[in-house]
Amino acid sequence: MDQADLDDAFDVLKASPNLPLVTRRWAINSDAVRARLGEPKRFAYGPAPVETLDLYATQRPNAPINIFIHGGAFSMGSAKVYAFPAEMFVRAGAHLVVPDFGRASDFDGNPLPLLDQVRRAVAWVHRNARSFGGDPDGIYVTGHSSGGELAALLLVTDWRGRFELPADTIKGGLCCSATYDLKVLRLSSAGARLKIGDDVEQAMSAERQIERLSAPLIVACGSLETAWFQRRTREFAAAARAAGKNVQILVAEGYNHFEVIETLANPYGVLGRAALDQMKLPAA
What we know:
Elements: H1 3-9, H2 12-15, H3 19-37, E1 41-44, E2 52-56, E3 63-69, H4 86-92, E4 95-99, H5 112-128, E5 134-144, H6 146-155, H7 159-163, E6 172-176, H8 183-187, H9 198-203, E7 217-222, H10 227-242, E8 247-252, H11 270-278
Parallel strand pairs: 3-4, 3-5, 5-6, 6-7, 7-8
Antiparallel strand pairs: 1-2, 2-4
C-alpha cells in the first residue's frame, strides 16, 4: 500500500457523506429512549471524572448484561449519545451498560490508556452485577469502530492475571466496523494525531493476540464501508477460524460505517438480531 492507499483505508468520511445526519439521529433517538426508559443509573468505575458508566436496567432478575463500547477514532464520543440501543436490550430482558472513557488526547495521543479504562469498566460490572440485578456470569460486549477495536481487545484480555476475575469473564462479543490491527492506522494520516509506537501497536492489535480468544465472536461491517474495513473484517474472521475459534461474520448490505451501528437498536436489524441471538434472548 502506498500513502494514498493508507489514507483511503481510513477515509470513512468520504465513504459516509451523511455523517452529520446520522450522528444527529443517534442523539435524537438516544433522547427518545431516555424519555421512554428514564435516565440511566450512573456509576463510577474509577477515580477519574470521566470513568463513569450508564446503566439501563431491565426488570428481569439475574439478567444478562451487554456492555457497549462506543467509537469515535479514540478521540471523541460519549455514553449519552449511545443510549439508542438501550431499549432493545431492556425490553428483551438484558441490562445495557455504556461506559464513558477518555480520549487519546488526554494521554498525549496514546490510545492505550483507553483500553485500561474499558477493562476496568468491565471488571466493575462483573464485581457489582448482583447489586443491580445482573448476572456476573452473563456478560457480553459490543463495540463499534474504534470501540470495536477495544471490544475485541476485551475479548483477548487475561482477566485472571490482570484482575483476578474468571478467565471467561466475557461470554461473547460483537465487534463492528473495526480493523483488529493498528499497523495501517499508525501509518495513515488518520493516525497522525495518535501516538502509536511499536508497543502500542502490538498491545492494541487484537489479531496478534487471537490465541487468547475463548468466547464466541461475531464480526460485522457494512457493505458501504471502505474496502479496507471490509477486507480486515474478512481477514480477522479468517484468522480466528484458522486458530480454531468460534467466529461468525456478518455484512450489513446497504449500510455505511456510521449507519450500521443503528441496526443494533432494532431486534430484527442485522446487529440487533445477532446480539440477542448470542445472548439467547428473544426479540421483545
